[in-house]
Amino acid sequence: MTSPSTAPTVTALAPETLQSWFTEHQDLVVIDVRSAAEFESMHIRGSYNVPLPLLSEHTDELAARLGSRVVLVCQSGVRAEQARQRLAKAGIDTAYVLTGGAPGFAAAGGDVVRGKDRWDLERQVRLVAGSLVVLGLAGGKFVSPKIRTLAGVIGTGLTFSAATNTCAMGQALSAMPWNKAAKEPTRESAILQLPLQAVEGAAA
Predict the structure, then answer these.
(1) How many CA atoms lie within 13 A of 163 on its CB side?
(2) Is the model's pLDDT at 198 over the cut of 70?
(3) Exposure check for the chain: N or C terminus, fewer CB within 10 A?
């Protein structure tokens, strides 16, 4: 089993280990950093939704409320790793990133809550980026060679995204109406209430 003492060097956590932690550790806090809409679609039972932009804005405040056993969850691990790095700078060096994200936990037989089916944000990014590249290539051939630059711009953006571990397109898409939940998490509902929720029970 992974030990919190190795968190600075070992940050990945297997879904099977998290399942055992749910029954073995009372101090466990699982934070899902995906958008509220993604969280509504499917999330780990007992997890808390603190979307990455909200976590980034209030990292120090959130870090002050976390215990010694924190697991960060997203769709694939990319956003969770960004959250881990931010929390590490705020003094939380015992946070883990769930391997395979929420889908991986579900595939391993973990207890999840399912709601309205939506495309996750990372899938939307792939669709938009791919569509823009195809549009640029087709437009360059049939309309004007200048339109080919669109494909280059997208390629450059994806390269920068990988190099910096950020995603401007994902942030833009997260603001779209179809990616909004009925009730978006706020500092008050997602962060200030976290200790009370951790005692009385997490998301159903």
Answers:
(1) 6
(2) no
(3) C
Tell me which residue has tokens 């997490």. Answer: 202
3-state secondary structure of 70: strand
pLDDT in tens, 61-112: 999 888 878 999 999 899 999 999 999 999 998 899 999 999 999 999 999 9
Q: Which long-range contacts (CB under 8 A, 24 or more apart) does 183-188 make?
A: 183/36, 184/36, 185/36, 185/49, 185/50, 185/51, 185/54, 186/54, 187/54, 187/57, 187/58, 187/61
Q: Distance between CA atoms of 125 and 123, rounded to whole angstroms?
A: 5
Residue whose structure tokens are 């950093």: 33
Q: In whole angstroms, what is the distance from residue 95 CA to residue 33 CA?
A: 13
Q: Specify the 3-state DSSP secondary structure of 68.
A: coil
Which position has the higher pLDDT, 196 or 168? Answer: 168
State whether residue 9 is helix, strand or coil. coil
* E strand map for 28-67: 28-32, 42-44, 48-49
